[in-house]
Every structure is written in C-alpha cells, then in structure tokens.
Amino acid sequence: RPRVLSGIQPTADSFHLGNYLGALRQWVAMQETHDAFYCIVDLHAITIEHDPKALRRRTRAAAAQLLALGIDPERSILFVQSHVPEHAQLCWVLECLTGFGEAGRMTQFKDKSARQGAERVTVGLFTYPVLQAADILLYRADAVPVGEDQRQHLELTRDLAQRFNSRFGKTFVLPEAYIPKETAKVYDLQDPNAKMSKSAATPAGLVDLLDDPRVSAKKIRSAVTDTGREISYHPETKPGVSNLLVIYSALADRPVADLERDYAGKGYGDLKKDLAEVLTDFVTPLQQRVRSYLDDPAELDKVLAHGAERAREVASRTLARAYDRVGFLSPA
Ligand code: TYM
C-alpha cells in the first residue's frame, strides 16, 4: 500500500475548521487506502515563543482530538515528533543541502517573521520547512495531505529529496502534496479574503472544534457576507457566502450545487442558521469523545508511546541509510 505522512502543530488548545477541512478529514479517510503516519509536531511548535506547560497540555489535546476525529492507532501510526529523535537528526543533513536563499524564499517564513518582528525571529523558524522535509522523507511517504498553505513546503521537500538522491544515490521517495480541491483554503469568517488561522487579528472569524457550539453558532451568524442576496458559489465576487457554502458542503457531505438549489430564493440568515446546526451536530459528539480521551492521560501517553516505537522502526532504517550515503562512518 502507498504511504501517507502528515503533521500538525500543537500550538493551540483546539484545532480549527481550517485544520479539519483542509487536512485532518483527509487524514482520517486516507487510513482506508494508505499506510498512515500521523505526527504531532512539537519540535515545530517551539519555533515561536511558547509556554512549556501549555505545550504539554496541547500535545495531549492534539492526540485526543485526532483520536476523536477517527484516527485509529491500531491501523495508523500516531506519534509525537520529539519522541523520534531521527527527525532532528535527518534535519541536520538536509539543512546542509538547503540553500540559505532557498529557505529565505519560503512565504510562510516571510509572513511569520513579519508578524514576529525581526528581533524575535529565530533560526528555528527559518529552518522550520527543512524539519518538515525530514518528517516526510524519513517515512518515504508517497502522499502528504495538507492545506494549500503547505504547497511550497512540499515543493521544497521534493527538491531536497531529489538533490540528495542525485548527489548520494537514490534514498528518498519524492512525495506528492495531497491538497483537497474545495477545502484547500478555508477562510476567516470575518475576513473572507484571509485564511482561517489562529493568528488572526480577532477570534470572531475563527471556529475552533472545541469551542462551545453556541459560541460557534454566533460566529457563523455574524460572518461577513457579500452584497446582493443570492446564495451562490462565486469565490471572486462573493467570497463570504462561498466560504460558508464550502464549509457547509464539506460538513454535510453534500455538493455545493445541491445547496445552491436548496437555498434558491432564501436569505443569508437561513443559510447561516442551518450551517450553525450542521456544525453543532458535528462538534457535540466530537467534544464528548475528546473529553473522554482527556480523562485518561495515562492511556493517551501509552498510545503515543506505542506509536513512537513503531515510527522509530521505520525512521531509524531510513536515517541509517542516509547517514551511510553521505559518508558517515557507521559506529563499529
Ligand atoms: P499546521 O499545524 O499549521 O496546520 C495543520 C494543517 O491544517 C492546514 N490548514 C488549513 N487548511 C485549509 N484552510 C485553512 N485555513 C487552514 N489552516 C491550516 C494546514 O495546511 C496543515 O495541513 N507545517 C505544517 C505542519 C507540519 C507538517 C509536517 C505537515 C510539520 N511537519 C509534515 C505535513 C507533513 C503546519 O504548519 O501545519
């Protein structure tokens, strides 16, 4: 079976709708067709200033949410990045193949560093995409389900794999980004031209999976819509309504065209009210499952330890091969 790897940062207490529709939904589905490796990337989470206590809590919360969403730790390998030291080890080798200018062209780095202010930008933030490449290449993944914002990091990963292979001999698999068509970029409810993100100026446009559904319903009701009255999918001219339609379509598993037909002649208020209901029906049982996983942190830690053990078997083999290829003497 082909292999899939993806990762998510434990940088918030809850994942948001963008994470779910852009990536996590595909993670769950791809368990059916792929050997899956899913990684909670805590090393990436410290590239911006963080609080150790919050990181520990969020790492467990990430695991609980992934399990609650349907990641099955028997079928898939679910693990924490820092439990597998090979990620940092391969990262070093790849850093030595990455051009300084090449890393400097990463738009996420440019955006994040502009937000941080020059004084606080770390070298870790700069090399972040190289660590991401190591995550992927260690498992020789064929496919990487992510949102649109990760496309450039996937291109870099392929470039580094190719560069390593041509310089030292075929070692890595060139991975393909697996980016969903409709939900590749979920937009902020208050600013439908910006992607939904936890770093937005206001939380009013951000729907967290673990928010009280009444709070989320209110955010949906006050979502920015567009001029005109028609409920139709036109991302260029009606970005607000189109975003709501895409979210609705994905959560209710109904094509956008069906929704357009159902809402012909109805108002934005009707659409919002129904979407709030669909969302509530999705998050209510999800939140119950998350709570029950969080009630037993020892069991969660056990699941993650088991995942790390299985991940290491694969990662250590790839790392050993890469070390050998670059000419490191193997310890006698
Ligand atoms: P992170 O933790 O920021 O986001 C996790 C996933 O959610 C997707 N996403 C979105 N998709 C659609 N619309 C949005 N508004 C939206 N916001 C976030 C992201 O594209 C991502 O797929 N660099 C990665 C983490 C990472 C990784 C990896 C991913 C580290 N190593 C290896 C894949 C493979 C990141 O920042 O994810």
TrEMBL record:
Q: Where is this motif: 'KMSKS' region?
A: 195-199
Could you tell me what reaction this enzyme catalyses?
Answer: tRNA(Trp) + L-tryptophan + ATP = L-tryptophyl-tRNA(Trp) + AMP + diphosphate + H(+)
Q: What class of enzyme is it?
A: ligase
Q: Which Pfam families match?
A: tRNA-synt_1b
Question: Which GO terms of type biological process are on file?
Answer: tryptophanyl-tRNA aminoacylation
GO terms (molecular function) for this protein are:
ATP binding; tryptophan-tRNA ligase activity
Per UniProt, where does L-tryptophan bind?
D135
Q: Which InterPro entries match?
A: aa-tRNA-synth_I_CS, aa-tRNA-synth_Ic, Rossmann-like_a/b/a_fold, Trp-tRNA-ligase, Trp-tRNA-ligase_bac-type, Trp-tRNA_synthetase
Cellular component terms per the entry's GO annotation: cytosol
Q: Is Aminoacyl-tRNA synthetase set as a keyword in this record?
A: yes
**Function, please?**
Catalyzes the attachment of tryptophan to tRNA(Trp).
Name the protein family: Belongs to the class-I aminoacyl-tRNA synthetase family.
Q: What is the official name of this protein in its record?
A: Tryptophan--tRNA ligase
- Source organism per entry reads Longimycelium tulufanense
Q: Taxonomically, what lineage is the organism?
A: Bacteria, Bacillati, Actinomycetota, Actinomycetes, Pseudonocardiales
